[in-house]
Write a structure and sequence with these properties.
- By secondary structure, this protein is mainly α.
- Among the domains are: about 150 residues, no CATH class; about 100 residues; about 50 residues.
- It has 32 helices and no strands.
- Helix 7 runs antiparallel to helix 8 and helix 16 packs parallel to helix 18.
- It is flat, with a radius of gyration of 39 Å.
- About 5% of the residues have low confidence.
Length: about 650
């Protein structure tokens, strides 16, 4: 390695001498450069060289080149270019070459090299890099596109650019995604070529797409130039004029996007059922701006959408937005909605309803007139979707959001509950319904408080006391009944949705209600399911419920709750951690309601029996409790039970050693 590095450093002597001679760097600076290059070369020559090592070397040489250019300008260094003016760029290329030889599969590295070639105007080098990259990655659409763009932009060779795109399409014919990208870029290429032709003719002062003032026009001026004395056509004279006319017509068709249209037709033949693929052609046309012939291409695309994709929601959405005029907002909404209604009558689907609702919601974003009418239409469309069985989660969520938009909280809550009933297996809908029910209950409570503050009579609600968390809950009002009913209905509809259960507990606690009303339903779910995981799952739900009951009611009520759950399949590890947290906190506080030590040990034993194979944290807690003064058995028996029970005891053993528990 050392010999190779020394050989490379010796080869730098001529360029270093020239850099000093030209005044770009001092001898001391070049000494530091050599030292840095030596460090980089040793890093690059090791067998385990990393891509980051190459990038650091490239960054160093690039910064040197930038400094050289800056000093050349600042110091006014001129004259004939010598080795010093290109040696640093050449060295960067050398490092890139070595890097791509080792990391040939890194497309980002190839892209960086190509960008460096363009930045330093290394045209011939860029051609070689592209050829090598395409040989290694023939199915990379970005490389083919880059190569074609290089030919068009740098060499002004449209024919070579077309040939590269066609070669890329042949290479990528088995890769649908790469082929689709190439078809789109090929279409863009032909539109760019046509735009350049139009710009060139405008610059030359040739007006008209067909070349007004050209041979065809002059033929019209001469009148009898193509007839003989008898008035018969003179074929010899008409030949050149006809050819010129045909050439002008062909050129006019090219400038109108004729070749681009042929490319588009060939592309659509390859992917006839993909609306998104066709939509991309429309986007490219939009990016190109207005030109003669664009409308015809767009109409052909829309006609193909109607003929080839009569059941595609995306196709109907594109057609609806195309039908909406850009003038009056009401007319645009009406025209687009008319297209959607035709689609819903012909091929109703959840996707089409979603597209129609999204169209109306987008129309509501501005300050367009008729917003109330549009909002009512959108709500009605959401209702129709749900009743027809085509309501997606997003559409039904939008329904309640639209009602909230007009400030109708109670109406939004009613709509959310109706929507959840239409799609009962969607927890997102129940979560929205529950949150809105809480908001309605909070608004009602605030209204009652305001009435009390103003001296108006209000209905009082009794509050009995006791230990049973369900029977002793405060007597609820009608609004409270609605909230509790919404929570129970939600968890019954999606009994295995952890997030929905946690939200139900959270909402009941926030509203001041006893979350213990969920106990019976939780028991049903746990009895029908397997043992829960160490983290998350129904164990997290049971843990949240135990904590909430202890907070809202009392530790005694929480004990009754977890006692009823202990004999079912274990909810999960978090449940046992929550139970032990509560009991150990009571023991530390010494409030007088704490459990005796044997019963806490029994809880630990039940917890490790249920989850002792995976839950090392539970064993560590057990060890800490057993290490407290007054423990009879000590930590030894617990330690060996844990080592035998855990599937991976190494972490447990390490923690015990760190805490000196064993």
């Amino acid at each position: 390695m050392a010999d190779t590095v020394r050989y490379l450093l010796e080869g730098m002597v001529p360029e270093l001498d020239d850099l000093e001679k030209r005044g770009y760097f001092s001898r001391a600076e070049l000494g530091r450069v050599v030292q840095k290059r030596q460090e980089h070369e040793y890093a690059l020559k090791r067998s385990a060289a990393r891509l980051a090592d190459y990038r650091r070397a490239i960054a160093f040489e690039t910064s040197l080149e930038e400094l050289r250019v800056a000093r050349r300008r600042a110091r006014g260094l001129s004259g004939k270019k010598t080795l010093a003016d290109h040696c640093l760029v050449r060295r960067v290329h050398f490092i890139y070459q070595r890097a791509t030889r080792r990391f040939r599969g890194d497309l980002a590295l190839w892209g960086d090299w190509l960008r460096f070639c363009h930045a330093t105007r290394s045209g011939r080098r860029a051609s070689r890099v592209l050829a090598r990259a395409l040989a290694l990655h023939p199915r990379c659409a970005a490389l083919w596109t880059h190569a074609a763009a290089w030919e068009l932009e740098s060499n002004a060779d449209a024919a070579a650019a077309r040939a590269l795109m066609q070669q890329g399409l042949r290479a990528c014919k088995t890769d649908a995604r790469a082929a689709a990208a190439l078809w789109h870029e090929y279409f863009r290429l032909e539109l760019l070529v046509a735009a350049r032709l139009r710009a060139r003719r405008a610059l030359l002062g040739i007006d008209g797409p067909a070349g007004a003032g050209g041979p065809a026009e002059e033929q019209g001026k001469t009148g009898d130039a193509t007839t003989d004395g008898a008035g018969h056509p003179d074929e010899a004279a008409a030949g050149p004029a006809t050819k010129d006319s045909e050439a002008e017509a062909a050129l006019a068709e090219i400038m109108r996007g004729g070749i681009a249209r042929v490319v588009m037709r060939s592309a659509l033949a390859q992917a006839p059922r993909d609306a998104a693929f066709r939509s991309r052609f429309l986007d490219i046309l939009q990016e190109m701006g207005e030109f003669e012939g664009r409308a015809e291409i767009e109409e052909e695309i829309y006609a193909g959408l109607a003929a080839d994709l009569p059941e595609s929601p995306q196709a109907w959405a594109l057609r609806a937005r195309h039908a909406a005029p850009s003038g009056d907002a009401r007319d645009a909404i009406a025209a687009g909605l008319e297209v959607f209604e035709r689609g819903l009558a012909a091929a109703p689907s959840p996707g089409l309803y979603s597209e129609a609702v999204e169209f109306l919601v987008q129309a509501l974003e501005g300050d367009a007139p008729g917003a109330d009418e549009t909002l009512a239409t959108a709500c009605e469309l959401c209702r129709r979707a749900g009743e027809a069985g085509h309501g997606s989660v997003q559409v039904l969520l939008t329904w309640s959001q639209l009602r909230l938009r007009v400030g109708n909280l109670a109406g939004a809550a009613e709509v959310a509950r109706t929507a959840a009933g239409m799609l009962p297996q969607a927890p997102e809908l129940w979560e929205t319904s529950l949150r809105l029910a809480v908001a309605v209950a909070a608004a009602a409570s605030a209204s009652r408080d305001a009435e009390q503050a103003s001296g108006c009579p209000t209905t009082s609600h009794g509050d009995s006391s006791g230990d049973d968390e369900e029977a002793d809950a405060p007597g609820p009002s009608g609004r409270d009944d609605a909230l509790i009913g919404a929570a129970l209905e939600a968890v019954r509809a999606c009994p295995r949705s952890e997030g929905l259960w946690l939200l139900a507990v959270q909402c009941l606690v926030a509203a001041g209600h006893n979350p213990g009303v969920l106990r019976t339903q939780l028991e049903v779910v746990l009895a029908q399911g397997p043992r829960g995981p160490t983290e998350g799952g129904m164990g997290a739900v049971a843990a949240a419920l135990v904590r909430a009951v202890a907070l809202v009611r009392s530790p005694a009520a929480a004990r009754k709750l977890y006692a009823s759950l202990r004999h079912l399949p274990s909810p999960g590890g978090e449940f046992w951690h929550a139970v032990l947290d509560m009991e150990l906190e009571a023991a530390r506080a010494g409030r007088g309601d704490e459990l005796p030590r044997p019963r806490i040990l029994a809880l630990f034993e039940a917890a490790v029996d249920a989850h002792g194979q995976e839950d090392a944290d539970m064993w560590v807690r057990y060890m800490r409790y057993s290490a407290q003064p007054g423990s009879k058995g000590g930590t030894g028996s617990v330690y060996w039970k844990a080592v035998r029970a855990l599937q991976r005891p190494a972490g447990f053993v390490e923690r015990c050693q760190l805490e000196r528990l064993a």
